[in-house]
Amino acid sequence: MSPVIELRNVRKAFTPERPVLDGLSFEVREGETLALVGPSGCGKTTALKVVNRLLDHDSGDVLAFGRDVRGENPIALRRRLGYVIQEGGLFPHWTVRENVEAVPRLLGWKREDARKRSDELLELVNLPAAEFADRRPRELSGGQRQRVGVARALAADPPALLMDEPFGALDPIARRAMQREFLEWKRRLKKAVLLVTHDLREAFRLGDRVAILERGRARQIGTPREILDAPADDFVREFISDERPVS
Questions:
Q1: SS3 label, residue 90
Q2: Contact 44/36 with Cβ under 8 angstroms?
Q3: C-alpha distances out from residue 173 to 77, 125, 170, Å
Q4: The whole model's pTM is what?
Q5: 206 touches 194 (CB < 8 A)
Q6: Which helix (H) or strand (E) element contains residue 20?
Q7: Pure H helices in 34-156
Q8: Higher-confidence residue: 106 or 26?
Q9: Burial code of 126-142, b = ≥16 C-beta within 10 A, e = fewer?
Q10: Which pLDDT belongs to residue 245?
């Protein structure tokens, strides 16, 4: 079975002196979460953005669903890739329901079908529609806004999710609660997920596999246990030692 998302020797540079991505390769399989982690400036978010063509790469191959993303309509591509960012990126003047139904309505879903879907997803993320559907983002906590962001990303039932520091703005208690909920959603929905985080503990907790990046390259890709038991080089050894992750 082909990977859902795949990068092959991808390069991206904003200045000639130093590429942000420098021969980066990885794949994300169906039902798998691959967590990208590394120091600031290592290319994590850039890697995510070349997948949904928020940025175009300079060379190499980026594939989604077995097709080169450069041959895809960016809008159509993004509708198959749910996208979750910090604080959910919600439209502030829309209600919770309107935010969740945004993509289905753009795709021409019937009103009753979009409403049924939003009700299902709000229940999934523990925000029952009867209580939360008519609220606006300013009436929600940070964790609740993040849940709405996840529901919106799932609304059109995309085969894959891109998540860019989705829990980074939350306090430690809310963050841990969201991580637990993420693991439950993942078990139930079986989506391919590409997750960007600066937190190694979070990467090890949520990722089936973890890619440790440094200067646009993957220094090691493996399960958390593989990385802990056999760091690939001195950089990886120092990185996981400094973070002292919980296995």
A1: coil
A2: yes
A3: 35, 17, 8
A4: 0.89
A5: no
A6: strand 19-28
A7: 44-51, 74-79, 96-100, 102-106, 111-124, 129-132, 142-154
A8: 26
A9: ebebeebbeeebeebeb
A10: 47
